[in-house]
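Action item from last meeting closed. Structure (151 res):
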């Protein structure tokens, strides 16, 4: 089994850091439901401003609040206004990777959803993996990475 991405909230902004609440991250259930993140699910959090990386579990805040609150010890890693990435993961066998379709939400400064993306892994006839980022209408959003050979 391999640990892979299951869902991602990319660039959501911290609305509050509450040191005196017992640990977790409080998120708007609307965002979590759309991405596929469950209450009490463990997530990885990466702070785009400071580079801090932590792991904690999700609790739901008020529906429609667009909240993103780091609680307890996690509050020491982020400040209100910081852009973070919240990722959940799952374990799959190598053959199951092509069935997975992680949902990614991107956000503006006020935590409104700006874009809805899906990651897709396929295999070609030669059994090579291909990775694409799909937009909400199914259009390919990914730009192939340049390699040293392409330069």
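Sequence:
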């Amino acid at each position: 089994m391999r640990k892979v991405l299951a869902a991602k909230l990319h660039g959501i902004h911290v609305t509050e850091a509450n040191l005196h609440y017992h640990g977790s991250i409080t998120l708007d259930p609307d965002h979590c439901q759309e991405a596929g993140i469950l209450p009490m699910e463990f997530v990885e959090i990466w702070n785009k401003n400071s580079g801090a990386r932590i792991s904690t579990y999700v609790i739901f805040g008020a529906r429609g609040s667009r909240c993103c609150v780091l609680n307890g010890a996690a509050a020491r890693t982020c400040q209100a206004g910081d852009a973070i990435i919240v990722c959940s993961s799952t374990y799959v066998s190598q053959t199951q990777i092509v069935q997975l379709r992680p949902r990614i939400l991107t956000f503006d400064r006020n935590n409104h959803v700006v874009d809805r993306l899906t990651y897709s892994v396929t295999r070609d006839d030669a059994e090579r993996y291909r990775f694409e980022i799909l937009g909400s209408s199914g259009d390919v959003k990914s730009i192939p990475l340049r390699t040293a050979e392409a330069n």
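Note appended to the action item: Residues 29-35 form the longest helix (7 residues).
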